[in-house]
Specification:
Rossmann fold, 9 helices, 191 residues, single chain, alpha/beta, binds adenosine-5'-diphosphate
Length: 191
Amino acid sequence: MLNIILFGPPGAGKGTQAIKIAEKFNLIHISTGDLLRAEVKAGTDLGNAAKNLMDKGILVSDEIVTGMIDSKIGHNLSAKGFIFDGFPRTLNQAEALDALLAKYNLSITSTLSLEVDEEELYKRISLRGKLSGRVDDQDRHTFLKRMQVYRTETAPLKKYYSDKGILNAVNGIGEIEDIFVALCDEITPKM
Ligand code: ADP
């Protein structure tokens, strides 16, 4: 199996690129943000618990997101592989993912880190907020909170994956197609 983590700050383009990669390599795309927003929309207990945190830019509990991932993997064991988008976001989630994959004799093939500076991220998020109506994209204060959460909780995972020798950085600024080609160039040799 080809198991890819698409890593990067909010607005780095993970969702856009994950869809394209999933299509090209025939992988199951797992976005914890999308899964959570679907729960919110459906008005489930889980969604109601998550909504308030998401709107404020705070992470939902590791147990909730790890549970969602567990079920997605368990239901797709005959897939060619997975692309994880927005997960893991904490060291605890990264360790849980390793344990979960190990249970099925699987492991992460590569972690692709999309590198984008903060000014560009803010521009993209503001535009996305206007187009999509996402509450967490619409105000600067929430953006700054998400960046702070990213820096303290998520960015340290770069060391976790580089220590394992599976971190690959890719420039996330430029044309969507050019970035996609650069990501594919990292994936293809690992197949
Ligand atoms: P972005 O990558 O632009 O921040 P996402 O759609 O990935 O957007 O996430 C939106 C929100 O959903 C996060 O701010 C957080 O509240 C919640 N969320 C998504 N993924 C996770 C996760 N792995 N762990 C905890 N919370 C998460």
